[in-house]
């Protein structure tokens, strides 16, 4: 059997040149030209099928074009973009170069913990905590804004610990830092770095810090860090995987202090006395986030329970005096309970109705009365005041202070 001769291509060199000129925007085709009918067609031509955007459909006639493109002989690679933006800097890839496909899979799972965009938490939205704000600005915000001054011995602190009673605003402060500095924010919890598969936990920690360096300046926020790295060696029941995870985290944090990349680790905990001593050493700044002061409590009440012009004056002084030892979340619950009292009176009236009242005919909720505040104070209790002395003692032993 005689081999059939290969059919010659239907495109000449001039047709190839015309096609690429049109594709790269260097030349427009004549509407009535013979080459235009062959190269770009809106009908059912046997040449090259196009949808108007010069997107070539693979057909037997243009197989040589596909081979020509795959061999890399195209002098200009546009990837479908207009020639005007070919020389622009490409966007940064989401993942850094990784050593294996397994590490890439772990990096993709950690990428879901990156907060896209800005957390949009301003310093002004956090009432009080002036000392904690000043320490955070000194440790994180100023080194990012003015890196010239923070070199050598004054290199920025890479590890910051926020400790204090629950509900005092530690997470809000971390998000405010990311907002102010416009850094990539990694919101990491124990579920992000703990895996049931052997060896994956320490690999997740390693990939996390590689991702942070790739997206620098970056902020890694480790919420409830006591669940990840409590004191080692005290409990004989501590699993080997837990020890390996803690060791890898300590090694990665130690490596941050030896690089110039702006990667900060913000850790928050309600139980700072349970942290390992080696981790406390790496968390160089230890900032107490205390219970709100009277001025901060008053600002919270005025914002959450604003006074209306035609309503009775809300007793803010009484609320401030009676909420000593309340955290920020306790105050929010107290304000919610106060606002529920008028709604409860309205609900008791609506329950007496036989039929459901249409939405447009529902009556307006009444104003907050002083007796509503008294009822809310009786029904709401502080949640963290019993351990306040332990936080003060830890702050005296390990905390960072501002020297005037």
From TrEMBL:
Principal subcellular localization: cytoplasm
| Domain AAA+ ATPase: residue ranges | 156-293
Q: Which Pfam families match?
A: AAA, AAA_lid_3
| Keyword presence, Oxidoreductase | no
Alphabetically sorted, this entry's keywords are: ATP-binding, Cytoplasm, Cytoskeleton, Isomerase, Microtubule, Nucleotide-binding
A single GO cellular-component term from the record reads: spindle pole
Localization terms from the record: Cytoplasm, Cytoskeleton, Spindle pole
- List, in alphabetical order, the Gene Ontology terms for molecular function in this entry: ATP binding; ATP hydrolysis activity; isomerase activity
InterPro entries documented for this protein: AAA+_ATPase (IPR003593), AAA_lid_3 (IPR041569), ATPase_AAA_core (IPR003959), MT-severing_AAA_ATPase (IPR050304), P-loop_NTPase (IPR027417)
Does Glycosyltransferase count among this protein's keywords?
A: no
Q: What is this protein called?
A: AAA+ ATPase domain-containing protein
């Amino acid at each position: 059997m005689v081999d059939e001769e290969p059919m010659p291509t239907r495109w000449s060199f001039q047709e190839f040149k015309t096609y690429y000129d049109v594709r790269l925007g260097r030349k427009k085709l004549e509407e009535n030209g013979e080459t235009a009918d062959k190269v770009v067609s809106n009908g059912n031509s046997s040449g090259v099928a196009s949808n108007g955007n010069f997107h070539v459909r693979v057909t037997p006639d243009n197989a040589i074009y596909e081979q020509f493109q795959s061999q890399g002989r195209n002098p200009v690679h546009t990837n479908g973009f207009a020639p005007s933006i070919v020389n622009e800097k490409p966007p940064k890839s989401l993942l850094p170069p990784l050593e294996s496909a397994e590490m890439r899979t772990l990096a993709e799972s950690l990428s879901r913990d990156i907060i896209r965009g800005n957390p949009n938490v301003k310093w002004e939205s956090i009432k009080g905590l002036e000392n904690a704000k000043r320490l955070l600005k000194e440790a994180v915000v100023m080194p990012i804004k003015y890196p010239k001054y923070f070199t050598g011995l004054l290199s920025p602190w890479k590890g910051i610990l926020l400790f204090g009673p629950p509900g005092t605003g530690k997470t809000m402060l971390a998000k405010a830092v990311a907002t102010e500095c416009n850094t990539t924010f990694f919101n990491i919890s124990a579920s992000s770095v703990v895996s049931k598969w052997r060896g994956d936990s320490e690999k997740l920690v390693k990939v996390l810090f590689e991702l942070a360096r790739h997206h620098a300046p970056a902020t890694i926020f480790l919420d409830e860090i006591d669940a990840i790295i409590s004191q080692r060696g005290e409990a004989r029941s501590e699993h080997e995987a837990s020890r390996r995870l803690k060791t890898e985290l300590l090694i990665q944090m130690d490596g941050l202090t030896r690089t110039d990349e702006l990667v900060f680790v913000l850790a928050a905990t309600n139980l700072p006395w349970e942290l390992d001593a080696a981790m406390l050493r790496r968390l160089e700044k230890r900032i107490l986030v205390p219970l709100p002061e009277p001025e901060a409590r008053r600002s919270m009440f005025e914002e959450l329970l604003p006074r209306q012009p035609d309503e009775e004056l809300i007793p803010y002084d009484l609320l401030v005096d009676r909420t000593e030892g309340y955290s920020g979340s306790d105050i929010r619950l107290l304000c919610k309970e106060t606002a529920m009292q008028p709604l409860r009176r309205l609900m008791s009236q609506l329950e007496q109705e036989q039929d459901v009242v249409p939405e447009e005919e529902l009556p307006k909720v009444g104003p907050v009365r002083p007796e509503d505040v008294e009822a809310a104070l009786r029904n709401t209790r502080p949640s963290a005041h019993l351990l306040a002395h332990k936080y003060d003692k830890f702050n005296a032993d390990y905390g960072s202070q501002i020297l005037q």
